[in-house]
Amino acid sequence: MVLGPWHILVELWNLLTPLTLIYVTASTFIGIVIGMLPGLTATMGVALLTGLTFGFPPKDAIIILICVYVGAIYGGSRSAILLNIPGTPANAATCLDGFPMAQRGEAGPAIGLATTSSFLGTVFGLFCLAFFTPLLGKIALQFQSWEFFWLAIFGIVVCGNLTAPTDPLKGWIAGFVGLLVSQVGQEGIAAYPRFSFGFDQMRGGFALIPVLVGVYGIAEVLGVMRETVVPRVMTQIQKILPRWRDLWQYRRTILRSGIIGVIIGAIPGVGEDVAAWVSYDFAKRGSKKPDEFGKGSREGLIAAETGNNACIGGAVIPVLSLAVPGSAPAAVLLGAMWLHGVRPGPLLMIEFPNYIWEVTAMFILASLAMLILGLSLVRTLVKILMVPRPILMPIVLVLCVIGSFAISVRVFDIWVMLAFGLLGYPMRKYNYPAAPLVLGVILGDMADVNFRRALIRTAGDPTPFFTRPISLILVAVTLITILARSAWFRQVLAAGSARLKAAFSRP
Amino acid sequence: MDYGLRRQDFYTGLILCVVSLGIVAECWRMPRDLQGWPAYASPGVVTGLLGLGLFGMGLALTLRSVRRSGAALAITRTDVWAYLADVGTRRLGLMLGISVVYCLLLGRTLPYWLTTGGYLLAVMFVFRAGPWWQILLISAGSTAAVAYVFNRVFAIPLP
Fold it and tell me: Contact B57/A221, CB-based, under 8 Å?
């Protein structure tokens, strides 16, 4: 741990080759473009590039994906500021103050502030990543089958709860559908082909990337092409570099939003959009000028952008230590690591002791590239925003097809992608979040194998599921998360607290 | 206050109930003594439990939509016509139709450049992305660029 910074420097030095720097620059640029185009999300970008970089050496492929991830989460702020349309869901909170700033002629400073806040958020997140992953990894080494089963269920419940805040039932349904999707194909203990219905292609189950590209990519393409209104940039951009006075003035907001972003990122499946909203909300509560929020507040913009980018580092912490993704793009990153032979999880620190430092160094390069490209290519990037959607979207679909096909060179995967696109579109329209479904697909095998393995180890006795300390904590937190959303439970709590108050207030 | 997605939730709930009961039935049919493993470790245990969980949630969604006020649950002919007449629905149908045909044609006898070029041309033309010469140039250029970059530079096989 003490030698952590030294390890990061060594890994950073190893990465500083001309080819890697070209990859970093190009992929961060691609990420920014993907993020800034409404309809293309970070998850879709990372999923798409996972397929397209399948043939690359593992180190190059992972750094490209990290750069796309960081670039896309930041890039969404462009369209949020200039068009009042968040490029990715993570930038929805940025619209509230970014667009009013642009309307009053401060688009340049808004972009500059968003860029530096995103950079600071990413840097804060990656230092937390480097510091906390080994600690969490040590705790994770105590996890056994019982805990892994509950971790999967906990992840689905929390993710469903937070990604569907107005209707958690739909989040949980999406999560369970994802868990069931992962059950298709040969299972992990006796290799029995479940739900294959005699089709050879189905015996292998649904690959993660076609499912992801379908749910995010195809659903996005269909959704965007359905719309008839094309947005236009109506503002001039002048001064871009932010005033350091603004950044120093809001240092507490930056730190608070960074911490919130990392914590929310570390919660399985929740993601950058929730991090941005919570950071924004906390900044408003703690602000000396809360009335300015929603009317072009610099503090609000800084909070949202710091929070969503800090979430990236936080989301990768459980990926590396528990093999449980903290957000939807992190889920794809996890899948990509598996594809390239790295096995994230409790044993990562033993099998690949330097991998955490390597990933941290990759994040440093990605955040630097984001800062430089973000501040220097403002006008070029605005022009890309003007590309008509009927030109862009079919090209995106063509790339989705290649990305899905490239993983296993099976036409079946293209159909899987299309089928999940057809599922993802109505899900989005009727408020079923896609993130729990993706998390379910990732965690389904873990839940299945560990549940059955645990029962085999205890000869069918289920009591350790509820008596082992970590299991018990996970069960309690899962139950509280579910119950906390029921009106009945809230009434019972309110009645209980009223009684307590009355008891204490009696003379 | 009216429950905005009452009808959609009602039918989604019903579909989830039917699908999840099908999953549970299929799990029940799975072998319970596979390769000598005990019944509690059989392949259908977790899947069956997940199916039951989904059934419960589907039922909750259906009952909730029945209890709350909002749009009528029955779908009338007028509703169907109104949906089909919507410009967005037509755009969606067109995009979906062309994309499905494209995906079905991939990996068959037609070469990749022809299917992809044709697909881009069709979408851009149908959605009036610009003048015909621009559409032609963009679709031909994009197809050539995609095929060259991924197939030749990155050595990724194309369908």
Answer: no
- The answer to whether B48 and B24 have CB atoms below 8 angstroms apart is yes
Say what the pLDDT of residue B2 is.
Answer: 59
Q: List pLDDT tens digits, range A154-210.
A: 888 888 887 787 888 999 999 999 999 999 999 888 888 999 888 888 898 898 878
A-chain residues near B16 (CB < 8 A):
173
Please give, rounded to a whole number of angstroms, the shortest distance from the CA of A230 to a CA of chain B: 12
Q: Is the same domain home to B114 and B66?
A: no
The tokens for A78 are 């462009």
Query: Where does a domain end: B19, B40, B74?
Result: B74
Does B81 fall in a domain?
no
Same domain? B58 vs B3: yes
C-alpha–C-alpha distance, residues A439 and A256, integer Å: 27
Q: What's the per-residue H, E or C state across A213-278?
A: HHHHHHHHHHHHHHCCCCCCCCCCCCCCCCCHHHHHHCHHHHHHHHHHHHHHHHCCCCCHHHHHHH
Chain A residue numbers touching B129 (CB-CB < 8 A): 388, 390-391
Which of B74, B103, B130 marks a domain boundary? Answer: B74
Asked if the structure places residue B80 within a domain, the reply is no
Of A180, A422, A430, nearest to B8 by CB-CB distance is A430
Q: CA–CA separation, A45 vs A30, rounded Å?
A: 9
Are A226 and B96 a contacting pair at CB < 8 A?
A: no
pTM of the predicted model as reported, rounded to 2 decimal places: 0.81
Tens of pLDDT, residue by residue over A252-309, are: 999 999 999 998 888 876 778 888 888 888 888 888 888 888 888 889 999 999 998 8
Inside any domain, residue B107: yes
Do both B69 and B120 map to the same domain?
no
Residue B69 belongs to domain spanning: 1-74
| B24 and B51 part of one domain | yes
Are residue B157 and residue B114 in the same domain, yes or no? yes
Q: Are A276 and A94 in contact (CB under 8 A)?
A: yes
Q: pLDDT per residue over B87-126, tens digit each?
A: 889 999 999 999 999 999 998 888 999 999 999 999 999 9
Tell me if A90 sits within 8 A of A104, measured CB to CB: no
* Lookup: tokens for A305: 């952008």
How far, in Å, CA of B137 to CA of B140, rounded? 5
Residues B91 and B142 in one domain: yes
ipTM of predicted assembly, 2 dp: 0.92
* Overall domain count for chain B: 2
The mean pLDDT value for A484-493 works out to: 78
**Residues B64 and B115 reside in one and the same domain:** no
A377 close to A36: Cβ distance less than 8 angstroms: no
Domain assignment present for residue B15? The answer is yes
Of A265, A337, A318, give the one whose Cα is nearest residue A151.
Answer: A318
Are residues B97 and B49 both part of a single domain?
A: no
For the segment A345-364, the average pLDDT, to the nearest whole number, is 84
